[in-house]
Amino acid sequence: MEIRESLKLPRGIADSLRVLIKIVEAVHRSSDLKEIYDTALDLVVQLDKVNMAAIYLLDDSGENAVMQSHRNFPEDYVTHASVIPRGSGITGKVLETGQILNIEDIHKSDEIGPAGKRAGFHGVLGLPILLGGKPIGVIWFARYKEEKFTRSEVELLTTIGNQIAIAISRAKQRQELEEKNRNLSILSALAEKVHRSADLGFMYETFLEVTKDLGVYDAMALYLVEQDDGGGRAAVLKLDKGLSEDYIANASIVPESEGVTWRVIKSGEPLYYSTASLQDNPLGPAGKRLAPKVVFSMPMKYGLQTIGVIHFGSSEKASFDKSDLKIMLSLGNQMGTAIAKVKMLDESRERAIELENLYTDLKSTQDQLIQSEKLASLGQLVSSIAHEINNPLTPILGYSQMLLVQTDIETEKRDRFLQVIHQSADKVRKIVENLLSFARKDKPRREYSDVNEILESSIEFRQYQLNPENIDVVRDLDPDLPKTMLDSNQIQQVFTNIILNAYHALASSRSQEARLEITSRMNDAGMIEVAFRDSGPGILADIQNKIFDPFFTTKPTGVGTGLGLSVSYGIIKEHDGNIRVESGPGIGTAFTITLPVLDIKDYLGVDKEEESVPQPGSVSPKNGRSVLIVEDEELVTALVTGILESDGYGVEVATNGEEALSRLGNIDYDFVVCDIKMPQMNGKEFFKRLKAMGTGLEGRILFITGDPSTETLDFIEETGNRFLSKPFKIEEFRDVIRNFG
Ligand code: ADP
Q1: Which residues line ligand 1 (CB under 6 A)?
Q2: Closest Cα to atom 3, ligand 1: which residue?
Q3: Residue 67: CA atoms inside 13 Å, Cβ hemisphere, count?
Q4: Is 44 in contact with 36 (CB distance < 8 Å)?
Q5: Cys bridge to 123: 143, 443, 499, 702, which one at CB 3.0-4.6 A?
């Protein structure tokens, strides 16, 4: 009114401007699309010569222009033309060109469909609604009169139409943004929860909880591919929403290749279908009975593999719009990755278990291997021992037989035979001794020992192997080497092993000169040093640090066990010594062992023992003294008595402990020779009783044992006395009794 009066505009124009201003105000006030359409169309039809108006917008698929609101269009038109496929009719033309379309009389135009022609208008003006320069809809203005919209009318309506279009596109943008926000918050809630969990059950619950008010779909079925009992595959229903009991009863397991579920699994592609429009509805019978109008089926992927399918369906919506599809796709992907993660975790757990089983298998195979290697080396040892024993047995059997058969043999000859028999038997004794030293695994039993002697017997033990290979063993042993406390059996084991390794190295290399040099000396640090230098091929630099590892061997199965050097290392370390190797290709190999010089006091580390443990060699035998022998074996008694008597001792024999104890009151014995294993009272019991008598003799006993077990030897060590194991040599016996002053 005000405008018209002040500007004195003609009435028609003034009215038009008023409408325009009202429209501008109204449409920009609201952000609700429906309100914008209604206000705008209400005002538009107030304009002179505009009798009808309608707004069409493209749907999310972009395929159809859908009527959003109209004024005065007859019902028949609305029924037939509320959805216009893209590209058809004049609506399609405006959308296509993005240009205004002004038609004077629709009845003269062949572009108008029958519904339009029946609608009762003649002149029509179509304006494109643009968003970002692209047509997204059309506003139609129509008049009953057969009259083209004039230029000024077109201008005015274009201005009005543009305002409406701006308002619509702004509202649409805002709506999309809000939807996106809502979807995003749903997705992030889902993502946060499901990706933190490794529990499928919890993930399913979360999915239902987060999406319950989404309103995008009303039915949902989530299937995972699993192995079925028959070794094939099946899709198994894991999660559902809005499904009928009938569906669950019939379609919770879908065997491979059946229905739309397997179509999606096999192709790995999503499928969007309207059940009404598709001639052959891809749903199976149970799905069909659910009667959704529209379904979106999407694969869940784990890498290239499809691990399952989610079907989203709606029995209300005729179609899913773009944003519906987008959110379903995101939901499906979120679930897919989360499930894949759990599967991966399960797989890696399974793999860990598999690995553990594999390790156990491997370990037992390795144990078996070690066992078989041990057996192989035992076999080798046994055959070499047999060979070793057979040698001395031959003269023993031969000569003894000759002695038995030839009764008239001359004394000289008989003595020679006997000597050979004796020497050979002694050899057997040594072999058995060596064997025992190999077999023993006891803790070190230290004795005051001569390293050179151990070296000699070690060489002797291997001689039968070294000789046939023409290996030249060169000794350079220091005769003044002091004795030291060590376990001679164990040290011999070390020496024989190093000699055996040298033998293997020399025998395998077939070099012209096969030489093993063995030296002993006192080194500058005051330690006994023993070196074995062979002229073999040497040890490669990169395995030198491995040769002391248990089971490291470069020798074929049955020859090497890889235990020799590791055991040797342990023995030398236990003796507070050192073992090192120097080697190089072409220069041979040298193993050097150092051992501390310890006397018995150093070894025991106590002064109080001083009196009861005499120093070796410090006391010479004193004839005329008396000795008590406690022994039940006649032959041993006879031998010991014989030696003692020949050395001038007076000897008393008791065949059991009780008898021995009863004699103690009568004679002042110098020392006692006592067996350990005796009937009635054994050596241990005898020692206890003797000690209780307080004669002081308990520190002057020579124990004789046929069973040098750890227990026995520990006992003897505790008593601080000496021992000899049967069989012993006369010299050894004499050596020991020399110590009793
Ligand atoms: P085994 O003799 O059963 O293999 P060892 O522990 O005694 O086990 O030795 C380990 C490895 O050290 C041998 O397999 C060999 O490769 C190497 N070795 C030891 N001594 C010598 C040597 N004198 N010359 C060359 N190699 C040696």
Answers
A1: 497, 501-502, 505, 534, 536, 539, 547, 552-555, 560-566, 589
A2: 560
A3: 17
A4: no
A5: 143
